[in-house]
Design a protein that fits this description.
Helix content is 41%, strand content 13%. The protein has helices spanning 2-27, 94-114, 116-119, 179-201, 203-207, 222-233, 236-252, 273-282, 296-318, 329-344, 349-356, 364-370, 372-386, 403-406, 464-469; strands at 36-44, 48-56, 78-82, 127-134, 143-152, 163-172, 416-419, 425-429, 452-453, 473-474.
């Protein structure tokens, strides 16, 4: 039976390659297209979605760029350029744009400093991001990041073998009103810049590209996508939603776990470990796999429980798979950095959980299903550290001053740079760099240099640029 499945995979792979090659051949005739793009776009804010599309473009054909050998290298070149659409109808004053610009660049620097294994390749690279401003009086804070990836796979394109990553930051201008609002804006922008940097470094798992031939998903669970960003931006408000919403939702579902008058918050002295565990039973981590902004239970699991789970996972990894209930922000950062860096090498999220927790959890599903007791105990201790703060790992969990952290002078050589004159910034990569890189939840992928984890088969389904790269194994 195994041989039959292996044969079927081989036939499917050969068929895909033949189909791709037929597509290339057919594109050479007729109107002689100047370039071919394969695009994927997605956005992350309170909701996460994506679509795929394509188009043509480019200039007169020139010799295809020579392949670059990235073997043994740890970084690659990125060239930022203005997008196609200049920003018009600006609602922000120049001073406000400058505040946002500083926050973007300083948040990126802080993230690189605290998560260097995953993001150090971006240090000083000037990754570009455009700006869209909107005013939403109903909310005092809010921002979102949108990305679009494009690869050029047509042999006659002068960009053959190259790819771009386009980025946009959408900011709610109402968030700029007071110092407290600026703190909230700083928190939200830090959250969104973490998304942007994970888009760049863990592109495959963040955007997803469907599933492999066995139906295993590429995209990360949403509790991880949002939980890692909340770790950076701060999660006090999301934890409070877990705590005060759990009793009412429990009662709506026929539960009797909470007294009718008990709706606690982080700062309440009556809060106990038992209460936290009951709340996490109402909002199970597994419910945060998919994002549904119209369902409070799912949203709370995605953001709130995802936040607590990522903190617990980070410290667990740093402690070699042994739970540690003495909260240490430095250990949380280091553990999550190791975890994300492992995925950036091409390992799946399942691989990283098993390997870095020293087998305590076999895979992502087991982590979701079996972590409740330890997660509840850890979360109770973690919550005590937040109290009146934002709960951000960019500073102490108990600090309530996010604006000071990221609203500083511009770095001399920014790693990420906001251009307020364009709605998008286009980041172009060196030829033959794998931009759709990293592993997914259950599927391994390629590192930027075309290498994939040692002993693993190349990921499915293969893309044209994957075939051309002829990847080698890496540890």
């Amino acid at each position: 039976m195994k041989k039959l499945r292996r044969f079927a995979k081989t036939i499917a792979f050969v068929g895909f390659v033949l189909m791709v090659l037929w597509g290339i051949s057919s594109c050479k005739f007729g109107n002689e297209p100047k370039g071919q793009k394969n695009g994927t776009n997605s956005s992350i804010s309170s909701a996460f979605g994506g679509s795929t599309g394509g188009g043509t473009g480019g200039t007169a054909p020139s010799p295809a760029p020579s392949k670059t050998d990235y073997t043994g290298k740890t970084e690659y070149d990125i060239t930022a350029a203005n997008g196609r659409i200049p920003r018009s109808n600006k609602k922000l004053a120049a001073a406000q744009e400058e505040v946002i610009k500083k926050m973007v660049s300083n948040a990126a620097e802080k993230i690189i400093d605290f998560y260097p294994l995953t993001f150090k390749h971006l240090k000083g690279k000037g990754l570009g991001i455009g700006l869209v401003d909107s005013d939403s009086p109903g909310s005092l804070e809010g921002a979102s990041v949108r990305v679009n990836t494009t690869s050029h796979s047509h042999p006659q394109s002068e960009k053959y073998g190259k790819a771009e990553l386009e980025m946009t930051l959408n900011v709610n201008t109402v968030s700029l009103g007071s110092h407290n609002s600026k703190n909230a804006l700083a928190s939200t922008i830090s959250h969104e810049i973490m998304h942007a940097m994970m888009f760049e470094s863990l592109t495959a798992g963040m955007l997803g590209r469907g599933a492999d031939l066995e139906g295993r998903p590429m995209i990360f669970p949403f509790w991880f996508i949002e939980g890692t960003a909340v770790i950076v931006g701060g999660g006090k408000k999301f934890v409070n939603r877990i705590l005060y919403s759990a009793p009412s939702i429990d009662r709506e579902n026929g539960g009797t776990n909470f007294p009718t008058n008990q709706e606690l918050r982080i700062t309440d002295s009556e809060l106990t470990e038992d209460y936290v565990k009951k709340a996490l039973t109402v909002f199970r981590l597994k419910a945060g796999r998919l994002s549904n902004i119209h369902d409070d239970k799912t949203t709370i699991a995605v953001y709130g429980v995802g936040y607590l789970a990522c903190a617990y996972l980070g410290q667990l990894i740093e402690n070699n798979g042994t739970p540690n209930y003495v909260i240490d922000v430095t250990k949380i950062r280091r553990g999550l950095d190791l975890f994300m860096a492992e995925i950036a090498k091409g390992y799946s999220m399942d691989d990283a959980i098993k390997r870095l927790t020293r087998g305590k959890y076999e895979n992502t599903d087991k982590f979701e299903d079996e972590s409740l007791d330890d997660l509840a105990k850890y979360s109770y201790k973690f919550i005590q550290e937040i109290k009146h703060g934002f709960g951000s790992t960019l500073t102490d969990l108990g600090s309530n001053d996010m604006a000071t952290v990221v609203n500083q002078n511009m770095p001399a050589q920014p790693s990420m740079l906001l251009n307020p004159d364009y709605t998008r910034m286009k980041n172009s990569y060196s030829p033959w760099t794998v931009v759709f890189k990293g592993g997914g939840e259950k599927v391994r992928g390629y590192a930027f240099n075309g290498q994939y984890p040692k002993g693993a088969q190349p990921p499915y389904p293969p893309l044209l640029r994957d075939i051309l790269l002829k990847p080698a194994e890496t540890e």
